[in-house]
Design goal:
244 residues; globular; 10 helices
């Protein structure tokens, strides 16, 4: 019996404050099933660079560069939360390399609308943070992890995640994309919604509607990629195999 080797490469884009590490548990699950994986960290969200002055275009260009420099094709671009912005922008530049974009508990950007304008309450917090920090970043504290990102999860895990988060470059939140949703240019897309997610700026079903797809709904909160990576990996494979 011949076992086929997957040809698709999963490339992961993390959400705000997160690095590629946030996708590592899911990437491991997929790698064990034979899929090549690449988990990216955006500029300014590692300890080897400054977040000062970064714009959304820097994150988009980083995703494009990492995929092109490795000459990757048949890419499944998977994004989480704010990561929908750089993933969407990059997908438009990588037609021919990216075959599908999967939005996992992610924002599907509207053309010309920055992250800061998706939710009035979030906008006030983000603007206040940018004005108050010397480098124009948006920090996040343990309380947000406990009450918004990971409510109900074990305290040690909440504490660990909080310690790993880095301030988000403000330009990532205030810049918009001048491109339509990826489905408007013929790219295949899917949306995964977490049932108990209260962190997104809008309901996941609204973001899925921007793509013209029905969301796949799974149990868990905004950070289910860390708490149930096997479920997330299964869901991504199912999304990959389905065409809407």
């Amino acid at each position: 019996m011949t076992v086929s080797t997957p040809t698709q490469t999963f490339v992961f884009v993390p959400g705000a404050w997160l690095g590629g590490w946030s996708w590592h548990p899911v990437a491991r699950q997929l790698a064990e099933r034979g899929y090549p994986t690449l988990a990216l960290s955006m500029p300014g969200l590692t300890y080897d660079g400054s977040p000062t002055g970064l714009r959304l275009a820097d994150a988009v260009n980083h995703v494009v560069s990492e995929i092109e420099s490795r000459d990757l094709t048949d890419v499944v671009l998977v994004c989480h939360s704010w990561g929908g912005y750089p993933a969407t922008g990059a997908a438009h530049q990588l037609v021919g390399r990216v075959t599908k974009v999967i939005y996992f508990a992610a924002v599907v950007p509207e053309q010309g609308t920055p992250m800061i304008d998706e939710n009035e309450q979030y906008a006030a917090v983000i603007r206040q943070a940018i004005a108050a920090t010397s480098d124009g970043t948006v920090p996040v504290n343990l309380d947000v992890v406990q009450s918004v990102l990971m409510p109900g999860d074990p305290a040690p895990l909440q504490n660990l995640v909080s310690e790993l988060l880095l301030p988000q470059p403000g330009g990532y939140m205030t810049d918009s994309l001048d491109v339509p949703p990826v489905t408007k240019i013929g790219l295949d897309a899917a949306y995964v919604q977490c049932m108990d997610d209260i962190a997104l700026a809008r309901p996941g079903a609204e973001f899925a509607a921007r793509l013209g797809v029905e969301p796949a709904v799974i149990p868990g909160n905004h950070m289910t990629l860390l708490t149930d990576p096997a479920l997330v990996a299964d869901t991504l494979i199912k999304a990959l195999e389905s065409h809407q």
